[in-house]
Fold these 3 entries.
Entry 1:
Amino acid sequence: MTDAMIRGARGGGVALAGQAGKLLVQFSSIVLLSRLLSPEDFGLIAMVTAFVALGELIRDFGTSVVGLQRQNLSHQQASNLFWLSLGLGSSAALLLVAATPLVALLYDEPRLFAVMPALAVGVILNAAASQLQVQLARAQRIPRLVAADLTAQATGLGIAIVGAVIGWDYWALVAQVLTVALVGLALRWVAARWAPSRPRGGNDNRAMIGDSFAFGLAQFLTYISQNLDTVSIGARWDAASLGGYTRAFQLLTAPLNSIIGPLTQVVIPTVNHARDEGRSADSVLVRLQFVLGLPVVWLYAMTAAVADWLIPLALGPDWDAAIPIFQILAVGGVVWTFSRVSYWGFIAANLGRQLVYYNLVTKTIASLLILGASFISIEAIAWAVTIGLIISWPINLIWLAKTAQQDSWRYWWNGVLLVVAAGFGFIAASVLSGLLSDWPDGLASLSGVAAGTITYLGIVVIPRTGRNGLRSAVRMLPTMFRRGRA
């Protein structure tokens, strides 16, 4: 392994260990709060979430990506990005407050008059924390960053549980969001030991703002396609229906957001170090696609196969409507894993403008599919989301092959192998658990998962690509968790 890969593997190991803890907290939140609160409570917050997510997008608008992506970033440049993000966040919060009457009118829900301004405060807090997180990542202080995230998530969950028990209802979820933002900001500030100077002109500001705008615009197009489904369901159906859909979607996205998402802070510096050593981005990203895709794809395939047993067990009997939604979305989740790795390729090559063009094509297709499906049913919307994700990945690979000279065939065959193995694993798990229907549900489902896992891994190791990927993962694991500064 090269020095860049060793540093990246160690940082990735710490990040993955921390994100495993964060994932545990998030799944605990889903399970515990689903039993303490009603689908209507979650649906009410979900009505606002799409608009708050827009505020979060505006407050960042590519500034964190640029701060992370730059191979050299001075203190003044980082300070300018800090003040830019804080200004954008404050403006976004004010826009959310001003738009509250329109959102309440859209959903015919007067309770949103208080909920939306409260959640807007979190946008300002996250804006202040954004560049602090970038500073920790650039300095490769991954343990401190992970500790701050994990502590904030656990504290927020504790506040939400207490609030739900004493009868706060949906306000328990609002308190959770604000607590995570406030505690996260405080801990990052202490851990980073960094304070911004006042903003100054020059310092390559124009180029940084241009790159931020390009990445932000690409993120905005992604935002539209990822939130159009919840807005459509909330407007056409009721809060309880939206609550069931969003719970299924959160079960799908929790592994990706908790494990793969934060790794951006490790992967991009690792790619930069690899380039300093004369290696290509592909030498890092192809290996990562397999190492990350192997467990995540397996997780989606197996949970989808036993969702009839797993979701009622985890969430309770009131959430049966989420079962078919989750199974449909899990198909798209398998491919979504690979698209996130390709996203790192755009960032590493500083192709913000090309990312905008790519998103303009793929997210338009996804949005049109969702709009058409919204006239049919909630399940049709889930299928539209899944088809949009499936279509996007090959377009992604073609785009990067043309614009970044990426060796996209390696990514393609790497991913196809995992998809095919997941399909056979899903069939094996479903068939066996069905044949054992006379057994207790839990035992039948776990037996199915065992059969599906054996099938999945058996197919993965048939071609040389799979065997090499497994060997690479095995060699990387000791480095990832070896002691040393990450």
Entry 2:
Amino acid sequence: MTLEKFNLAEIESDQLFSGENVIHDGIVDFAKYIIASPKILWILKEANSSDSDWTMRDALKDLKNTSGKGLKTGWANTFTSIIYTTNGIFTGEDWDSMGNFYEDESIIKVLQRVAYINVKKVPGGSQADWNLIKEYYSENKNALHQQIQLINPEIIIFGGTYNFFDDDFFELFGELEAHVENNSLHIYQNKDYLLLNAYHPNNRVIKHSTYCNLILEAVKNWQLKFGK
């Protein structure tokens, strides 16, 4: 797909979700996503925000804290794991070997190479309401499915969101081999796709380092098995 077609896909993706309160999301930077390998999509629940006069795409293009080191205020709890995991997929490093974004803030820019969407496109709070998100999914599932098809990822990481999706969504990916890694990561894969049913990145069940390394190991195994 050319950059021009990706730009058209962004417009089409935004048109799938209408309304004054929509926080648009999707491919963060088309020019970087188009050359990224593998192509990664993160799917989370909703934006923790009281307003909608911004887009997730613009926010993720630069999460660096302009007044200090690390991430902007309010973003670290969820996006620390996302950034390290994403960086590890692209570099082949694990949590302990890749350094940290307090010393190397360029690590934060790895988000420019991926896509990110929320199931619920309207503002939410710090505690997600499962029933409200499921209701939003049911009302907008065709649009959500189309958005993901436009993004066309090879790897989808569900951050506590896998169970919102109906069976007809997973049929889009063909027959998937399934297994469970350490009871904390459910893996579904074939030669074209890797779907990971993971905890939310800010979960309290396993450490962030474990969360990251479990996903990195699954990606490496998928790449080795199918010659990626």
Entry 3:
Amino acid sequence: MDIRIAATEAEIKACYPAIHELRPHLAEDDFVAQVQRQMQRHGYVLVYMAVQDRVVAAAGYRVAELLAWGKTFYLDDLVTLGSARQHGYGGKLLDWLIEKARELGCQQFHLDSGVQRHDAHRLYLNRKLQITSHHFAKVLS
């Protein structure tokens, strides 16, 4: 089982069921266009793992340079289909992403995670990620 970059419209669309579990506000009709826009404008990369032609885990990341952290790998999205959990797919994908950050010469690896995502937090802590800050947000109408 390989980890692949979703480059074509069909590959991006195949990732929708997994990403939708993490981002239920995203409409399927708009998903491909939004991912392509983020790829073009922000360097977003969507990667996935498939088993028998079914995407079981997906992740989206980007690399940025920030005054606070230098060259940074930022993990926007990481999800395993609910029906495919407990097979280690999320851990394998996270390990691959951390190694990719190293290959890209990033000095740091970052992600935000909802406070209710306890299973994800266990995975992150098991991979030696540290809780380093609070994230504040405000919805702007």
